[in-house]
Amino acid sequence: EQARNVFKVLLISPIVGFGASALLLLALKMLLRKPELYESPKGNQPPPFWIRALLVLTCTGVSFGHGSNDGQKGMGLIMLILIGTVPPAYALNHAIGIDQMHEFIAVSQQAEQVLNRAIARSAAPGARSADPRAELTASIQTRHLTPAALPALRQMIDKIDQEVVLYKSLSSVPASQQQNVRNDMYVVSESLHLLARSGQPIDSAGAAVLANYKKQLDRSTKYIPSWVKVAVALALGLGTMVGWKRVVITVGERIGKEHLTYAQGAAAQIVAACTILAADIFHMPVSTTHVLSSGVAGTMSANGSGLQFATIRNIALAWVFTLPAAALLAGGIFLVMYRFV
User: Fold this and answer.
1) Dihedral sign for Cα atoms in the order 41, 45, 51, 52
2) In the chain, helix, strand, coil percent, each to 5?
3) Rounded to an integer, what distance in angstroms lies between the CA atom of residue 69 and that of residue 270?
4) Are 189 and 160 in contact (CB under 8 A)?
């Protein structure tokens, strides 16, 4: 389901960038009648100060959006590797101390009480699951809560509660059990997310308790160490500093038949920043380059500057083939490693 959403967003976002940038440029022409704004750069002569300030501001928005979206991809991949290779150190958030564990225990007991009331109103109040994790995993995979899911969820919460009481802090969980405790927390968290959308007869107060408990679980498993954030930020910044020129030349000079004007650049950057930040709100990854280059193409079309279809074709082919090529390559490498390593 998540992969399907990624493909949808990557398909829709360039279309949004194209259309919104074209409309924004037309609106600027109607509302802001400054001839110098609609001129192309003349050699190395800098633009007027207010135009430079506008471009710096809109560029900062794109940069912020790029970091907030592409940066999260890098952090997610690094954490995936760390959790898979050294789970004793990164499977659980060791920064959570004993005081926070007391709060976690109190909230988990409240969550158990909410589920007990819900189970008491169900058709099988005394039901228990022989394998609660497998029961919940099946519900997550099918996106449908089975009748035994509520008792299984209560059993899993009780199990996690006992583990937290036993070890007193996440850093004290034995290395051999870190991955197991993380898996329990993850399954319960995803089951609570499914429960909130299932329409089960749980009152608003009970739903708030379960949401708070899910937040506690996510704080224990869904975290990013500070050094990972700094490393990804440096990688993005250094990568942009080193490889900016070819991208800038392509976007600024080779998409349209005329050079990009200041207004076109500002419109494309405003739309790119807003589109990327909107995707962040809905937790969807997008490509900054795709959105920005399609935005430039939209402004070229709205401005009557014409498009260089050879460049558009090459960009479109790169969009079409990058995802399946990356998927096939990664899948092939995985199969080779799975069989021979």
Assistant:
1) positive
2) 80, 0, 20
3) 16
4) no
Q: Kindly tell me the burial class for residue 167, based on how many C-beta atoms sit within 10 Å of its own C-beta (0-12, 13-18, 19 or more).
A: middle
% residues pLDDT > 70 (the chain)? 98
What does pTM read for this prediction? 0.78
Tell me the C-alpha distance between 61 and 325, whole Å: 31
Q: Is 254 exposed, middle or buried (0-12, 13-18, 19+ CB in 10 A)?
A: middle
Amino acid (1-letter code) at residue 291: V
Structure tokens at 228: 């990972």
Q: How many Cβ atoms are within 10 Å of 89's Cβ, its own excluded? A: 14
pLDDT per position as a tens digit, 244-297: 888 788 777 788 888 889 999 999 999 999 999 998 888 888 888 889 988 999
Residue with tokens 């990164």: 90
Residues 26, 32, 33, 37, CA torsion sign: negative
